[in-house]
TrEMBL record:
Coiled coil: none
Annotated InterPro entries: SusD-like_N (IPR033985), SusD_RagB_dom (IPR012944), TPR-like_helical_dom_sf (IPR011990)
Organism: Flavobacterium nitrogenifigens
Protein name per the record: Starch-binding associating with outer membrane
Entry-linked Pfam families: SusD-like_3, SusD_RagB
């Protein structure tokens, strides 16, 4: 069985805990917050570990990476499209989320603050616990800082001006986005100081456990926070720290980043752990966990090809076409195309044990359409995704991203020539020509455009593209916005301010003085 962060217990206000072992009956014991047993919590190192495991649990439900967060990150971008019959999902992709309908974006907002609350409980209570193993205590506190930073990162990045609770209280005032990014940076800095490079070779209750936050993960997200705030100098220094750890390398097979075959691999800085084997079979839609919950993802069924799932999300034709812009050194198509998209490939393509052309032969619309392959259980071991039980881990941060973000920082700080080296490291995996030979002497502006292209093809359907579009200011650039509209009709419904989601109405009602985001 995979060694991952799973199984449940509840403490405090429906504090869900996740452990790294198989589920036993005693793991499902729930402590009633209305009786005295809660007062006995936060006493031991095991309590502390269970407490931080609870914060990991907030990554696994519908508001976060089971389904909603990938949708919020993906479907606004020009690498995807949605014609979902579910209005809430359709509206996300068309910049039309409704304040009166908090489905998807509201669930995400709620779960981010659930995770922040759980991390705050660790940061409030664990410092007062006596540990024999001081290193374990530091690791637990470091993980809590990392997870709080990650939840804050999403909240600030997607909702702009949000509360920043760092201690337990009743009301939390709305803060500016600048204040939000400052808190994100502070949390990731604190995490990086306390976390190990790896859990292999350490001693303690968490020894050898995969899926826990590491120094590299904290530094990687710290660098992203600097990059998103255009602090290129600090971002460059931080990404170089990740590179210099000597821990990470690109895997040979690009597709290994999106299946169960090679999870927690050398390229992965942080991924959310899902498994068909952990827990029960019920879906965890949110709130307090139940004993029958499994730890599986609904991403696969949501993005699946027609007749194998709901097909709520599909790749864009702009993405498909851009994969054809450049051939490999041997004159072949970029292999990332076949790892990302199902299509009617000359010579045939298999999906779920079926030949694409044969399976869709009676449906010309589907035969001539394109579908998501990334994060699908489509290599023949399953007939379809209708059991809603994907065990594929969600890769949040890959080493390829570190390399390309570092290249971007080099370019933005005047070392455009140096950027070539790190871009080529990513291109080499898929056998693309030497960029320094194919496009020598790019100016800083031209290199910005090239990095946009490189990131578009390396990270489609991974939740990065719209973040890039927003942080690069393309939506405020009339020429770039027109270009986006020409390649993705969904941008025709964009209006200023809709790059962020609305503050959910429940937050507006419960937190007096909260100001709604522009255009809502």
């Amino acid at each position: 069985m995979k060694s991952k962060i799973f199984s449940y217990i509840t403490v405090f206000l429906s504090l869900a805990l996740v452990t790294t072992s198989c589920v036993d009956n005693e793991d499902l014991t729930q402590l009633d917050p209305n009786n005295d047993s809660v007062d006995n919590f936060w006493k031991t190192d095991e309590d502390a570990l269970q407490g931080v495991n609870a914060a990991y649990g907030s990554l696994l439900t519908d508001g976060t990476y089971m389904r909603s967060t990938p949708l919020l990150l993906d479907v606004k971008a020009d690498d995807s499209r949605t014609n979902s019959p579910w209005g809430s999902m359709y509206n996300v992709g068309h910049f039309n989320s409704n304040v009166a309908d908090p489905a998807i974006y509201g669930w995400a907002y709620e779960t981010y603050y659930q995770g922040i609350y759980r991390a705050n409980q660790v940061l409030t209570n664990v410092p007062g616990i006596e540990f024999e193993d001081k290193a374990l205590k530091n690791r637990i506190i470091g993980q809590a800082y990392f997870l709080r930073g990650l939840f804050f990162f999403h909240a600030v990045n997607m909702f702009k001006n949000v509360p920043l609770p760092t201690e337990l209280a009743v009301y939390y005032p709305q803060k500016t986005q600048d204040e939000g990014w400052a808190q994100v940076i502070a949390d990731f800095k604190a995490a990086a100081e306390l976390l190990p490079n790896s859990y292999v070779g350490i001693s303690g209750l968490d020894a050898g456990q995969k899926g826990r936050a590491t120094k590299g993960a904290a530094l990687g997200y710290l660098g992203k926070a600097y990059l998103f705030t255009k602090d290129f100098t600090n971002a460059k220094t931080t990404f170089k720290q990740v590179i210099d750890l000597g821990v990470y390398s690109l895997v040979t097979n690009y597709r290994d980043n999106f299946t169960t075959a090679n999870e927690n691999n050398s390229e992965s800085l942080f991924e959310v752990q899902f498994s068909r084997d952990a827990g029960g079979v019920d879906l965890g839609w949110g709130g307090a966990p139940a004993s029958g919950w499994g730890k599986t993802s609904a991403r696969a069924i949501t993005y699946a090809p027609r007749a194998f799932g709901w097909t709520d999300v599909q790749p864009s034709w702009a993405l498909f076409n851009e994969f054809h812009d450049e051939k490999t050194k041997t004159g072949e198509l970029d292999p990332r195309l076949d790892a990302t998209i199902f299509y009617n490939k000359p010579g045939g393509m298999q999906l779920y044990g079926k030949d694409f052309a044969t399976f869709y032969a009676s449906s010309p619309a589907d035969l001539n359409d394109i579908f998501c392959r990334k994060y699908q259980n489509s290599d023949g071991q399953f007939a379809d995704e209708y059991d809603w039980r994907s065990g594929i881990n969600e890769r949040l941060l890959r080493y390829a991203d570190i390399l390309l973000m570092y290249a971007e920082c080099l370019n933005e700080t005047g070392d455009t020539q140096g950027a070539y080296t790190y871009i080529q490291m990513v291109r080499n995996r898929v056998n693309l020509p030497d960029l320094a030979t194919a496009k020598p002497g790019l100016s800083q502006t031209q290199m910005r455009e090239q990095i946009g292209h490189e990131r578009f093809l390396e990270f489609p359907l991974e939740g990065h593209r719209f973040d890039d579009i927003r942080r690069w200011g393309w939506l405020q650039d009339p020429a770039k916005l027109a270009w986006l509209k020409a390649r993705d009709a969904e941008f025709n419904t964009y209006t200023a301010g809709r790059e962020y989601f609305p503050i959910p109405q429940l937050e507006m009602d419960n937190n007096p003085g909260t100001i709604q985001n522009e255009s809502y």
